[in-house]
Design a protein that fits this description.
single chain, 487 residues, 17 helices
Amino acid sequence: MRGKILLGAAAAAALAALGTVIFFHAEAPAESAWRGYKTLYVDRDFPEERVLALCEGAGVGEVVSLSGQRPPIESPYLPVREHLSFYAERRANFFFDKSLSYKLYYIDERYGSALPALRRDILRAGAGTCGINVPRARNRAASLVCALVFLLFAALSRERAVMFLGGLLPAALAFRLGEETLSAGVCLGLWALFLVQRAWGARGFWGLWVKKLPVPIALALALGLTAAGSPVHGGLFLLTMAGGAGILYLYQEIQAGLDRRLSFLPLRILPARAVTVMTGRPVFLLALPAGGALILLCLFLFGGRAQASGPGGPAMPAPSFLAPGEGFGLDAYGDFIGRAGFVPSGDFPSLAELLSLEWESLSFPNRPLGPHGDREGGLAYLSAPALIPGGGRFSVSEYTQEPGGKIQAAVTEYVFDESFISGIISRVERVLPPAIERVLIRQGRFALVAYSGSGGPGGMIPVFVLIAQTVVPLIGMALFLKGKKFV
């Protein structure tokens, strides 16, 4: 028996420690579409030079903006060709959303901590709309709502210590992250804990969590609705609730050890299964999680949170296809073209297309004219050897006359290979102001880009979840008041 107690205490300690670690390391899930960069969107009519000046004032450097772009390829030997202007026109699309309502700026994630203040500065400067697709900042109001509900449950509990210890980790997690759907889910989970604390000290207390129907239903709904808002938050909620249960088990063992020292120990006659958890007060206290969720819904809808960028925000450029292999080597280049069905079309150019254009600018002045040298049609450069890995090769002969009159020939061979690709990548990374191709390089692999986040149903998920977290407790209250007791 003693061994089982020690084993249970060890397991409870592990759960409590896990929940505590999860709390201290929990962060909101990232929402940035681009690796290494955040996208700032501002009303198109707001002057770009003003945005860049505010960025500089906020300590945000090397902003990738439309005004900072230079022609991707400059060659005195390359005439104006259709495919070069086609690339440049599509390159400009990186700096506008799909509706052309906002101008976009790409900011290195190193400056992430300065972005909330920068957004406020831009709005104060007169921009009608400004958003950043970074993990949303903590909503202090959501944190306070959950904290208030937790304190009210603790104050109204028969076993205040049990309510406080069991609910501390999940409530602290909701307070730390300040996210609406998580806070509402925790409020419903706290109500379930409020029910079971009424049977503290009775035999079979732990079985109450699954045998009293309202408790597992409330916990399942809290977990399911929280996970619907964010799977990451659902996992954090589950782990902190498990950690809270572990703390309660340790508290139970400590309390039992202290009680054994008493000469007289009062015992509860009724087992836990005989305790009625759904009496008047717990039923009416369903109004706490319902009211908390309603307040959080209003905060989300009218506090500007629903307009945050993400699935429900502006349709902005984002990677739509990533090459399976990391890096920009020759094999990755060929594999990307083969898998992506690469053609110079669509709204955005790719890094593979830039490499082909670079090869075109280098090889065009040194190719023979005619049907087998020049390509027919401006976009037919796609048939260039650059698109056949290892097949791009040409040589240039240079002739110089020595002082004695002898003519010396020197032949330079150019090859589309790893060295050529790495040279282009290195040059783009050094360009200042930074080019949009630097953002593509930061992805670590070849990518196709398309518009994403175009106001689809994903943007309404938090609204639906908060509505459910408001309505479900009220339905439970109504059913009980009609006589459908769940005991």
